[in-house]
Amino acid sequence: MLGTYSSSVNGIGKSGYSTGNRFLGEGFLTYNGAIGDRSNWSIVAGASTERNNDELNFLRGEQFSSPAMHDAGSAANVTDYDASRSQHNLVSYFSRANFSLLDRYLLTASLRRDGSSRFGQNNRFGMFPAVSAGWVITNEPFLHPLARLGSIKLRGSFGVTGNQGISNYAYLATYGAANYGTLPGISPNNFANPNLKWEQTKETDIGLDWTMLGGRVALIGDYYNKKTTNLLVARPITGTSGFTSFFDNVGDVRNTGAEFQLTTDNIHAAKSGDFSWNTDLSFSTNHNEITALYDDQPLYGGVRSVNSVRVGAPLGAFYVLKFTGVDPATGDAVYQDTNKDGSVTADDRVLAGNASPTYWGGVTNTFTWKNFDLKGFLQFSGGNKIFNAMRIFADDGGYSYDNKLDYVLSRWQKPGDITNEPRASFDGNSGARQISTRMLESGSYTRLQEVTLGYRIPSSLMRIGGLQNTRLYVSGHNLATFTGYRGYNPDVNSSGSSSSIGLGSDFYAYPLARTYSVGISTEW
Predict the structure, then answer these.
(1) Could you list the mean pLDDT of each consecutive 10-residue stretch along the chain, which spans 524 residues?
(2) Is 383 left (phi over 0), alpha (psi -120 to 50) or beta?
(3) Alpha-carbon span 477 to 517, nearest angstrom
(4) Which alpha helices (H) appear in 61-139, and where do they start and end?
(5) Could you tell me the pTM of the whole model?
(6) What is the C-alpha to C-alpha distance for residues 228 and 251, in angstroms, rounded to an integer?
């Protein structure tokens, strides 16, 4: 893949190119067999390779004699440039076997061996086995009476997966250009870690599939237990080493939870055009806990380092001072002296809430009648806290010049006032500026995410041009959110979706837009 670009605006021009070459190769063999009429098996074995090469060159120039001469090479002054290249390769060997017996016993086993160039030679390869089994219990002759309850299938699985999601060359001690003025030079870029290895997740799953009432009701339930070991994290180190962090396998984390999905055909249309109503309900829970860290040393991250990684707590749990109220006599914020040493410092911080939801789900209802269809989707999430980081400036007692949130109107103003809003303080000595549980808010919400109304035009009216299956629709998204969170959007993370530690913070994140659309879909 090759991309090029050039532009010229107000006498400034940019030009460059970026390339990304990716080669994929795969080969496998499949063998199928049978034992009698009601049993069969298959085996697959193969190998694959992936090679990635990335290269970037960039050049910026200023002062052009003519808008028509907009390439950077025509600039009177070259002001900026950059270039980089990297490689990443992956080789895999895999096999899988499937076995089915008497239409009720199902077994699958697989084995992968993957090697990544992102790890050193001693730990480059990882082995990832998996096995799963299914039992359609209602097909058992001795359990035939259960068939009146519908079709019931039990499932179980165990597997190991790997993660290599780190930067290229993370295990190497690399060097790069460090020019001093016009003199060339080099400097170290990365702290070596030859012991870096695959992050692994071992997961056990137990599930149930139950279809009843002639297929009008279907229930899927799963319980899972996932343990991730050798977490790949940029571990902080002392700056006296010349670096502030390096990638390492620092600990373990466990996730346990359940997932449910219920599908119901509430009103079944006896014939085309009759009224029908279908419902889909999903509900998930998750409990996350750090079970091991390098030397049990906690890590911090996120906006103002309010998120923590520490043994016994969820990943990214908030670790801040505990706000206990406002002194009615002075109007100053009061914080818990956790270690009872007579003063409130960073050592008095406490675990103050989960940054990730502990449950979430949604309900979709679909109605049809004649040529009309109506769909509504309601989603929900909860069990988490949000660090409303906007309050650092918008609810700081008046220390900064930012606009203030309206609830500062309930601030303490005279002795005897009972409130949780500290007094106004131009010099910032009321304690309102302290990052604490006062700035943590419930992240639970329910949202009307989508409503869509459609009308399918009769085919007899759409014969011109060969159009068929034509549907007009009007749709609205993010229509209403019901929440106790006082920021813009409870479904937020200002640290970015790729952040593993910085979670659940809202630092002036742009709110979700409410959108409406009208469209037409057709076939010809």
Answers:
(1) 39 49 83 83 93 82 77 77 83 94 91 93 92 92 80 95 89 84 84 91 96 92 96 82 84 96 93 92 97 89 93 95 97 96 95 96 97 96 96 94 92 96 94 96 97 89 70 96 94 84 92 94 78
(2) left
(3) 9
(4) none
(5) 0.81
(6) 8
